[in-house]
Request: fold
Amino acid sequence: MEFSLLPPRHQLVETLTRIYRQGLTTTSGGNLSIRDDNGDIWITPAGVDKGSLTPDDIVCVRHDQTVEGRHRPSSEYPFHRMIYQARPDIRALVHAHPPALVAFSIVRKVPDTRINPQSRDICGQVGYAPYALPGSEALGANIAQTFAQGFNTVLLENHGIVTGGQDLLQAFQRFETLEFCAHINILANALGPFQVLTDDQIEQFYRMDNQLPEFVPQRRTSRELELRLDICRFVSRAYERRLMISTGGTVSARVESDTFLITPYGIDRKYIAPEDIVLIDAGRREQGKVPSRAVLIHQLIYQQHPNIHSVISAQPPNATTYSLVNRRFDTRTIPESYVLLRDMPVAPYGTQYVQPERIAAMISKDTPVILLQNDAVLTTGSSILEAFDRIEVAEFSAQALLQTLSLGELVPITDEEILNLKRKFLQ
Ligand SMILES: [Zn+2]
Reply:
């Protein structure tokens, strides 16, 4: 779906519903707006259930201040108006009270976005606006002044977050990515100090080459067409289950020996469609499409492992937390975890850029899953379903492990029972 072609009132409903379904707002909290080319501000209404909003509920405040719609505009309209006045480049705003960012807002701290290569550049520096009464001109002035300093993401003391963008999708992606960082900061802190990336390490990611030579496909097999649909279904499922966020996660699947399909670079994971998926054939990319930056690693894995038919790299929050800390992600928790994940090694940050062949060589029948330090969980499988299952099991296992922190020490399955599991399930 081409989100930017939706009219403002539809974009607002779609995005607010998305925020509500992802558990990032309550029905009473949060408001969004868009300023169109005319200077009119389209905004969510005051006092309407966020779970059942329709486009007709959206209010339009014309540039001459006349209000159109069957409801009152959000009570926070003053700060939306004042931010737009202060920042002519901002065309859309997202405001809500998602729990992890509220935690930062009530202890007056800012989440570190250098936990992985993408988040800092998506969110930018995070500003802080002093507390004032909700809905007041004073709150509007505090937030607008912080935006005027150039911040696009602003925490509000004892309140929540406001993010801005050149369109609503960008404002949403900044909001969701920052909440993801806040969540991971909180989880990682519980395990002790965690490592963040330096500027040089972040630049390594942006130097990674995904501009392979192009080719024009001559034919489309039925298998290719089916896999395009399957990849979209699994990306969508991963997004719904919060195993991926809008700005991160790659799925690929082998079509034939030297040919595979992979998700594109830079398209919101909720809106990836079959035609966006990129066909890679013998190191060349389908004309006019740009694959994920992980394309070379996926290609090397397919080249070295003929039995692998799908590779997924994703950033589910609990499992990703273990890629930031010097604590072992012990998979000897329950039989399901060990059988699907095995002993999950960690690849040091940067290996995927300077020696991607080393990542491919780490994979084997006994090592189907790798943690990429400060980046992602990489799973492989004989099908997309198997690789997806491994992502899901990694996330559940990590979540259970993190929950033991307030309960007591893990009692792992014994070595002898691990041998029995291998004999029964892994021969
Ligand atoms: Zn609020």
In short: The CA atoms of residues 10 and 222 lie 35 Å apart.
